[in-house]
Write a structure and sequence with these properties.
Largest interface: A-B, 36 and 32 residues
Protein name (chain B): ABC transporter permease
CATH topology of one domain in chain A: Rossmann fold
Order of helices and strands of chain B: HHHHHHHHHHHHHHHHHHHHHHHHH
Mean pLDDT of chain B: 92
Structural class of chain B: mainly alpha
Oligomer: heterodimer
Shape of chain A: globular
Organism (chain B): Thalassospira povalilytica
Pfam families (chain B): BPD_transp_1
Strand order of the largest sheet of chain A: 6-7-8-3-9
Radius of gyration of chain B: 24 Å
Helix content of chain B: over 70%
Number of helices of chain B: 25
Strand content of chain A: 15-25%
CATH superfamily of chain B: MetI-like
Distance between the termini of chain A: 31 Å
CATH architecture of chain B: Orthogonal Bundle
Low-confidence stretches of chain A: none
Family (chain B): Belongs to the binding-protein-dependent transport system permease family.
Number of domains of chain B: 1
CATH topology of chain B: MetI-like fold
Mean pLDDT of chain A: 91
Low-confidence stretches of chain B: none
Number of helices of chain A: 6
Largest sheet of chain B: none
Membrane topology (chain B): Multi-pass membrane protein
Largest sheet of chain A: 5 strands, parallel
Chain lengths: 216, 561
């Protein structure tokens, strides 16, 4: 078993989540770098709880067994901010008190020093998403599609080692959904991120082109 | 560090209450070494029961407290039943929220100036009835305490209304109202049968706080209540302030008696709840629909409007008196206006405002820091507090102030903190902490937890998430909670008076001290002064976020409510 920081992806070793003695879900899964695995299942099947467990924000009343390993490092007991696991929800959750640029700079690691350099990275990221010059805008003035893209850019700027997608396309209308979906998947592959997506929509699964796991 | 904050906060609330109760209980049975009481005995009780009219005072406290609470609850419930979800309801919501900032004493003075024999209402009637002198009636300080009940009701309605408002969404009331209406029920009947049973458990603790307060109130009773004899709490304060220190023993047993009165009141109220719940179960199932309840609805709007109107008119009449020149009886307005008194009192006003702030600023800062610490700890530990926690928060609001303030004074003397700013701040914190907590906990807990989760998953420390995400998102709620805290500390009469032992002349102690003198112009000035700080606080809570986030449209939605 590799213990160095080699890129072995995201491993869920016999992870089982229980609530009040009842098992919600059990998975055993390895997601390779750049691979997108889709998890489908009815609501209440514990899909979102699994994502919460992987990023370390699951409420204490859940009982969890098994191991979560990212690139050879066990994440269990590790606080969420030290896991390098990014998450996108169906709402963009842009911080309404910060500008678009402020939201992105919030995500940049502190190790990136210098105001000018940080500003440059933020503007480059916006440029890559065809959103030149949006840095000083109020997020509330953006369209739904633009907000979704900023939310993705924000996660990517935090330099995650894995990405979790919690029905991230369900609130976009069908035309936007296709565009944004391919943008997200392209970024996952380009950044070689092991990606776990939970969704209701079978189309998301087929668009991802990876394994699809049906729960329940 | 953070995990100790809830314990420290509870200690700040429960500690003084417990120490104060012990410090009252011991002298009540003859033990107070500082005054030579070393032998336990029942002498203080014998002395207390030998006081003339003691049972009449007890009866006044108990009966008037129960009536005032019942009337307040009934009006609020009726109004909500009749008007929930309508424009009138929203209008009342906008009127009543700022009124909550009016301190009890100011509200009582305003009401007194309206209904007194020479008050505004009598002056209006005089125009038509041709009176040339005030009617010879004891309208305020009436022996039955009706004026006092009116004052309490007017002031408690906004509080109970806002508490009910907070509970409404949790019972899915709008859809319940639709269902009862489509089943053919009148608005009021539908609400009482289907919504009230779900709402009431949520507002039960605030209702008990109102009941305990009304049964043991001091400042409103001094201003509006009967005097021969006065309600129990007022007489206790008299004995505590008596130069004859030996009376402290009897005062202590009276303070314990006051606690028992509150316990009995809560017992009676609880029995009433049971009976209503039992009868209500039958009535809910009997199919009576009361389709035509227009009269009831109009009546509830009139009652709610009257109480709000009385408070607002009361403030207006306070303002007019404060700048009145000569103002003879049947005249509706003074002959002349003058700022002479404001000028004469200028220095005194300044110093009482400074004293008030000297207490208020540290109290509010400590309270908001502790409450934020508790809520942040709750969020980080991802543990929900149990049911017991909410009782702890309400405890200081249910134990009558007069029952533990004297004991607390004894306690502070014992540890050498008597008459210090520290002890006054500590005594204010007992009451400020619960209100700040109640005001902030809902917005804090309903803030979408995914903001914090997203930020953490971006690799940001928990500290940064608090300071740069949660706190800015809650700016308006935090400032509002601070304004609530400010209003509570400014309105404190008994703790300032007893723990400060007269050293801290705040706007409120000054105002209540004027009650017996009857100088209306001075009462007008100090009654208004009491409101200046709370209103300034609430204005800041509205303006600061609006200015800070003027370029962030999303913050309006975030800060609504």
């Amino acid at each position: 078993m590799p213990s160095d920081h080699s890129e072995t992806g995201l491993e869920l070793r016999t992870v089982s989540i229980r609530l009040g003695g009842q098992e919600l879900l059990a998975v055993d899964l390895v997601i390779a770098p750049g691979e997108i695995v889709t998890l489908m299942g009815p609501s209440g099947s514990g899909k979102s709880s699994l994502l919460g467990h992987i990023c370390g924000t699951l409420p204490a009343q859940f009982d969890v067994s098994g191991q979560v390993v990212l690139n050879g490092r066990s994440l269990d007991g590790c606080p969420p901010q030290d896991r390098h696991v990014g998450i996108l929800f169906q709402d963009d959750l842009l911080f309404p008190h910060l500008s678009v640029g402020g939201n992105l700079a919030f995500a940049l690691p502190a190790s990136v020093k210098g105001k000018a350099k940080r500003r440059m990275l933020v503007e480059n990221a916006l440029k890559n998403a065809d959103m030149d010059g949006f840095a000083d805008r109020d997020p509330a003035t953006l369209s739904g599609g633009q907000r979704a893209r900023v939310a993705l850019l924000r996660v990517l700027l935090s330099e995650p080692c894995a990405l979790l997608l919690d029905e991230p396309f369900s609130k976009l209308d069908s035309e936007l959904r296709g565009q944004f979906r391919s943008f997200v998947f392209e970024q996952c592959r380009k950044n070689r991120l092991p990606t776990l997506m939970v969704t209701h929509d079978p189309e998301d699964g087929s668009a991802a082109g990876g394994r699809v796991i049906n729960l329940a | 560090m953070l995990r100790f904050v809830p314990i420290i906060t509870i200690a700040f609330m429960i500690g003084p209450v417990s120490a104060g109760l012990i410090g009252t209980l011991l002298p009540a049975f003859g033990i107070l070494p500082a005054l030579g009481g070393t032998e336990p005995g029942l002498d203080p009780w014998a002395a207390l029961f030998a006081q003339p009219g003691i049972w009449q005072s007890v009866r006044l406290s108990l009966v008037n407290g129960l009536i005032a609470s019942f009337v307040s609850v009934a009006i609020v419930m009726l109004f909500c039943a009749a008007w929930q979800g309508t424009r009138i309801f929203r209008a009342m919501q906008r009127i009543l929220s700022p009124i909550l900032a009016v301190p009890h004493a100011t509200a009582a003075f305003g009401l007194a100036f309206l209904i007194a024999p020479s008050g505004w209402i009598a002056r209006v009637i005089a125009q038509f009835a041709g009176w040339d002198r005030p009617p010879d009636m004891a309208i305020i300080h009436d022996p039955l305490g009706i004026a006092m009940i009116a004052g309490l009701v007017a002031k408690e309605i906004p509080f109970l209304f806002l508490m009910t408002l907070a509970a409404l969404p949790q019972a899915d009331t709008d859809r319940t109202a639709q269902i009862t209406a489509t089943l053919g029920y009148g608005r009021v009947a539908g609400w009482f049968k289907a919504t009230l049973p779900r709402i009431y458990p949520q507002i039960r603790l605030p209702v008990l706080a109102v009941l305990a307060y009304s049964t043991s109130v001091v400042d409103v009773a001094i201003i509006l209540g009967p005097t021969t004899p006065a309600p129990l709490a007022v007489r206790i304060l008299g004995w505590l302030s008596d130069p004859d220190l030996a009376l402290r023993f009897m005062a202590s047993s009276a303070a314990i008696l006051q606690l028992l009165v509150v316990v009995v009141a809560i017992g009676i109220w609880g029995a009433g709840e049971r009976i209503i719940a039992l009868a209500g179960g039958q009535i809910a199932a009997n199919g009576q629909r009361f389709r035509h309840d227009g009269g009831m609805r109009a009546g509830s709007a009139v009652l709610a409007g009257l109480s709000a109107g009385a408070l607002i008119l009361g403030l207006v009449v306070l303002l007019i008196w404060s700048i009145a020149g000569f103002w003879g009886f049947p005249d509706i307005m003074p002959r002349s206006f003058s700022l002479r008194l404001w000028q004469r009192e200028y220095d005194a006003i300044g110093s009482s405002l400074v004293t008030t702030l000297l207490i208020a600023v540290p109290t509010v800062v400590i309270a908001i820091a502790l409450v934020l610490g508790c809520l942040e700890h709750e969020t980080r530990s991802r543990h929900k507090p149990g049911r017991g926690a909410i009782w702890l928060i309400y405890l200081p609001l249910i134990v009558p102030q007069i029952s533990f303030m004297f004991g607390l004074q004894v306690f502070f003397t014992l540890i050498g903190l008597e008459r210090t700013l520290i002890s006054v701040v500590l005594s204010h914190l007992v009451f400020v902490l619960p209100y700040v907590f109640l005001s902030l906990s809902d917005p804090f807990r309903t803030l979408d937890p995914r903001y914090g989760q997203t930020a953490l998953c971006l690799g940001v420390s928990t500290m940064r998430v608090f300071w740069h995400v949660r706190l800015p998102l809650l700016t308006r709620a935090v400032l509002t909670a601070m304004a609530v805290g400010l209003a509570v500390t400014v309105g404190q009469y008994l703790p300032t008076l007893l723990i400060g032992a007269g050293r801290f002349a705040t706007v409120t102690t000054e105002a209540v001290a004027l009650a017996s003198g009857g100088d209306r112009r001075m009462i007008g000035i100090y009654g208004l002064l009491q409101m200046v700080l709370p209103f300034a606080g609430f204005a800041c809570a509205l303006l600061i976020p609006a200015i800070l986030f003027r370029h962030r449209r999303g913050m309006n939605a975030q800060n609504r409510g």
